[in-house]
Amino acid sequence: MIKAKVKLKDSEFSEEVEISDHHMVRNGKSSELSQVNLDIPVTGTLYGTLLNYKGSLEALMEQVHHPPYNEPPKGPVLYIKPRNTFSAFAKPVPLPTGEPELEIGASLGIVIGKTATRVKKAQAMDYIEGFTIVNDISIPHESVYRPAIRYKARDGFCPIAPWVVSKDSISNPDRLGIRVYINGELRQENTTSNLIRPISRLIEDITDFMTLNAGDVLLVGVPENAPLAKANDHVRIEIDEIGYLENPIVTEEKLAMEGIS
C-alpha cells in the first residue's frame, strides 16, 4: 500500500489514505477515483521549471545561441502558475474562445514539507513532503524568453491531483515513467531520469536564491514534444508509483452554457 494525503470536496482538511492499484482506501473502504469527489490536494504557490528535460533543451539548442537568448540557461528557468489556474481531478479544462487546441504539460510535482532556504543536495529530500501529478497546460507558443502569462495563466490551466504521495512510498523520484494518453491513445512517454537537474539538484539551485515554503509545489519540468488536445478530448496523465490524473477539454462557451466554473 502507498501512503498519501488527499483532500475531499466540502472537507476543510486533508486526510491520510492508502492507495492500492490506483484505488483509494479510506476508512477500510476501497473506491475508484471516479467515485470520489476530489479537491486540489495542495495549498501553496506552484513554481514551474522550463527546459529541465534534456530533450526540451536540445530542441531549442539552435535558437538559444542567438538573440534574445544568446546562450543556454545557466540556472533554473522558473515561472509561477497562479492560484486561478489550479483545478482538480476530473474537472473540465476550459478551451479559450478562438483557440483550436491546448498543449498538455505532464509534470511531476514536488510538494515541499518545510521551509527550504539554501538547501544542499544531500539534505534536499528532507524538505520534501511528497509528490503529485500536475498538468501544466498552455496555449501553444514558441518563445520561452519572457513569462508567457497570457498562454500559461488562464483559469483552470493547472489540474493538480489526485493526491500527494508520501516521499517514503516512492522508490526513486528521479526514475519515474510519465505517460500522456489522449482519448486512450498514448501520445507521450518519458521519464524523470532525463532531467537536466535531478530533484535534489533542482531544489539546491532554486533555494540558493529563494525560499520555498511548506505546501509549495515545484514542477520538475515538462518533457519535449508535449501533445496537443482539442475540444471534447479526454486527457490522462500517468506517473509511476503515484497514479493518474484525468481531465476533459471543454470549450469556454459550453462551460458557460452549462454554468460550470
TrEMBL record:
Protein name, per record: 4-hydroxyphenylacetate isomerase
TM stretches of this protein: none
Source species of the chain: Peribacillus simplex
Pfam family, one: FAA_hydrolase
Domain Fumarylacetoacetase-like C-terminal: 46-250
InterPro entries per record: Fumarylacetoacetase-like_C, Fumarylacetoacetase_C_sf, HPA_isomer/decarb_N
Lineage: Bacteria, Bacillati, Bacillota, Bacilli, Bacillales
Keywords, comma-separated and alphabetical: Isomerase, Metal-binding
Domain of life of the source: Bacteria
GO MF annotation terms: 5-carboxymethyl-2-hydroxymuconate delta-isomerase activity; 5-oxopent-3-ene-1,2,5-tricarboxylate decarboxylase activity; metal ion binding
SUPFAM superfamilies, sorted: FAH (SSF56529)
PANTHER family in the record: 4-HYDROXYPHENYLACETATE CATABOLISM PROTEIN, ACYLPYRUVASE
